[in-house]
Specification:
10 helices, single chain, 225 residues, 3-stranded antiparallel sheet, 42% helix, globular, alpha+beta
Amino acid sequence: MELPGLAKALYGMTKAEAIAKGVCVKCKLVVQSGVNVYSPAGAAEYRISGLCELCFDQITGGDQEMDGDVSKEDLFAVEPMEPIHIKFGDPSDDAKYDFETISSEYAQKNAKLKGLDIVLPYPNQLQLDIDSEADYEAFNKNLAKFRLHVGSVSIYEDHPSKSGDPGKRHITLRFEQDLTPLDRILFQLFLGSDRTRELLSYIRYVNDDPNPTLFYEKRRLPLGT
């Protein structure tokens, strides 16, 4: 399914327009090394999607902490961005490009660059990206109603964000039976998961992506290391 002008519909401008202006397509702030782009992977991501690193991490639920073997000098060694000259073409090209930057295949490649893992849900799991204290309160409020009227769920994992932002967490729930990808997205939305994240999950779903729901998680070291 083709979705023309995805970035335009979501953020009010295309990524080409954002890059031409040197701003983030989502937050509209000027992209600056060491401020809202703070790693080589973030600089590469901006050239690909038009998102600053802060907004990309927010949308994907990515953890901004890096592995211990990355030095402070490496973290801020972002090369200055040269002006990018873009030829505007068929809007369908932009739609295709937009989808490619949120596909699960692209997520796997991006996670590898950033030293993160992609965690996929089991057939009976829900993955909630809780982005604020208000969303966490909504989750706790809606959970009882969900159990009463929709189905039984139990909390499998509840991870506060390593960034320390209040209310920001990843929650994995076990449902009483296996879920369709569409039901998973809908139930996650009911329970307070980040709206933008679930919209992107739905876009992956309608584009027949094999993994519409996924988590970016900090890489877990093997036991004993």
